[in-house]
Design goal:
- The chain is of the alpha+beta class and 415 residues long.
- The protein has 2 domains: 206 residues, no CATH class; 172 residues, 2-Layer Sandwich (Alpha-Beta Plaits), CATH 3.30.70.
- 67% of the residues lie in helices and 10% in strands.
- It has 12 helices and 7 strands.
- The chain has a 7-stranded mixed sheet with strand order 2-3-1-4-5-6-7, with helices on both faces.
- A hairpin with a 2-residue loop joins strand 2 and strand 3.
- Helix 5 runs parallel beside helix 7.
- The relative contact order is 0.07.
Amino acid sequence: MHEPLSQDSMIEVGRRVREAQARDLLEQGGTGAVGSSLAGIFVTAGLYGEAPQGTLLGWLGLLLALQIGRLLLAYTVTDEGEGVGRDRVQRWARINLGLIAGTALSWGVGVYLLWPDSTLHQVILPMTVVGLSAAAIIGYAPVRAASYSFGILAILPLAARFVSEGTTAHIIIGFLALLYLALTLRLAVTMRETSTRALTAGFENQFLAAKAEAASEELAKKTVLLEQLVRLDGLTQIANRRQFDEVFEREWRRASRTGTPVSILMADIDHFKRFNDSYGHLAGDDCLKAVAQALKGALQRATDMVARYGGEEFVAVLAETNHDAAMVTAERLRDQVASLEIPHSDSGAASHVTVSIGVATVIPGPNREPASLVEAADDALYEAKEGGRNQVASRSEKLIPAQKRKSGQWALKVT
């Protein structure tokens, strides 16, 4: 089941329902105006010579003027379309109600002003008024004011006029007109309730759909964020081991297809345990975060990635990178960390925090596994640490010990 709408949403639904009903009434105005105009012309023709000519023509002129106003209003609403603001619709709706009430009153007053002496001609006005009222009461049912005003202002004068004749037949017809009015208005109430329920359900569904869409978008954002979080290291906010494994596997497959080299850099903060013992674990966490961001900032290509491999150890994946380029990148990473100048009095390698980096490069082939490249980089890292730390050591494409360099100088590493 859907969560119910809030009170504010329900209030807005009510406003939209009333606006839709008012707009519908405005758009119907053209049909009503044409019908009332034709009826007025036929009544005038039927009563011509039976009612005072000046009064008859004056009444017709007033009726037609009101209908022209309704036609113009209906045309304006239709021409403006759905983009009309709520304030303008409400203003037009008030004008429309005035024109409808004026039309109904014209027919009601016309019953008194145009009542002929001829019994035969007396049938013309009641039939016309009753017919128009029935159409208006039912057609305007969604808008109570329009429906009630037309019925009351047109039928009540008609009933009163019949009763005023004084004969039994006329009085009965007058009360029948009132009964007809009551029954028709009751039917209009039912139709209005049906219309309101249908419109309310439609707008509620729109609100619920919008709410569901917003919830779906929010869920999608949270899902993306969650996916990012599970691939980020919580402390350093760089990629974690899981993301490294995914990226490395993808780049390995790509390199296997294209025959291009891929390089792995394994970096370790020199004597990090001593740092923690000397400066405390909070300072150690800050050191890890600073080093992680320095390593990330030293990578120059969008395809390169550095991740926290575990503890104080980091790993970088360099796609389409040969051995020499990987060594250059490793030196840049080492220099970047050194430039932080984080004090480390117990390092032994320098007076500040430094890293040792192992580099391994390979062109993937059918007889090679991704893990072998990581192991080679880890072995190279071990060599760098054994050689005095704060340096870069490497293993060649064949994954055998090659050469290392310290402080920018190349030296042969013999195993």
